[in-house]
Specification:
The chain is α/β, with parallel strands linked by helices. The chain is built from 14 helices and 15 strands. The strands form three sheets. An eight-stranded antiparallel beta sheet has the order 1-15-14-13-2-3-4-12. Helix 1 crosses helix 14, helix 9 packs across helix 12 and helix 10 packs parallel to helix 11 (264-272). The chain starts with a strand and ends with a helix.
Amino acid sequence: MEVNTLVMDRRELQVLANCVYRGDTRYLHVSYPFFDLDLFTLDIRKPELKDIVTFDDFDRERMQRKPVDRGVSADELPTYNDLKTCLLTSGFVRYRNQAEAARQLLELRDSSRDPNKRPRPVFVAVDTNILYYRFLSRNMPLRDPGSGRHVEATDFRYVLSEIVQVEVDSRITHKYSRGEIEALGQLFAHKELLPEFRNGSGRRERLAKLAFNEMNYLMAELRALRIKGTPVRGKERNDIEIAQSYGSWAKEGDYDVLLLTADEDMMNHARTSELMSLQLDYPHEVPRHGRIDPWSVSDLLYDLAVTFGAVSVANAGLTLLGEWAGKNSGDYGRERVKVMFEDAGAHAEVERQQALCRQILS
């Protein structure tokens, strides 16, 4: 069967969803093809996610697919936390202390604008996990439910340690070998998709490339300052060095610096380095159903495709590849996925709508 393909960027996936909906398909059954596992159903009309896979069901399927030899690492199998993070970065689930984080950031912003309260310049420093969770580009602006006020990412100046940059960059090292693809073929369902992954990035590398995009957003859009730092071996020791690099820079420049992190231990390192700090509490639970912002549907589909490597919408005849033969750094930077269509008519219509949107935005 001939399959038509189309490369689309993250925002254009909204075009894909709209075209499917206009074709009288209300429900999209999104699955992970390599586990042959349903992840959730998207009700496009509401829009709402329903029947989200449970941890037990996901983990059971993952355990059944774990490699028994060293032909490929178990790290290449997505985890339930990968799904949870995709739901977090798309705004479906929230940090447990999101309202409190909004309140603290509002207070910091307001005090930084009053020289009587805070005479020194204020900067927000970023930990590595904040890049992986794409907090600044995806979760901002934040709304304080108590006051109804919003805080924007652009309300602050930012600083980024070279150690954080190196942590992300050093994880982009591994590409699938022919032997690994063959080993995955012994574990995965729908192995016909695996040739697309030859010489492609592994799971950890794909996640790091998502974080790298967030780092580019921080540097280019939020104009973060880059400061010196020296990486060391060992995660815990490196975390201490990150905090110390921010602390030393703050003292030398006489700045007030807030370290933004999602790591409890980093809060201790921040205090030792005499930094203000704010920890975002990663969510524990995922509801089985709930509403999703319609504009976040494209974010969710994109994040799933890259994180998992591939996701399918079988009832619409679609497969979204986050990695494919010939994908390059430009495709990652422009946040592109490759969409495979079983129906030639659907492919033609989405391609037409995509061209119209690009023409309007050009």
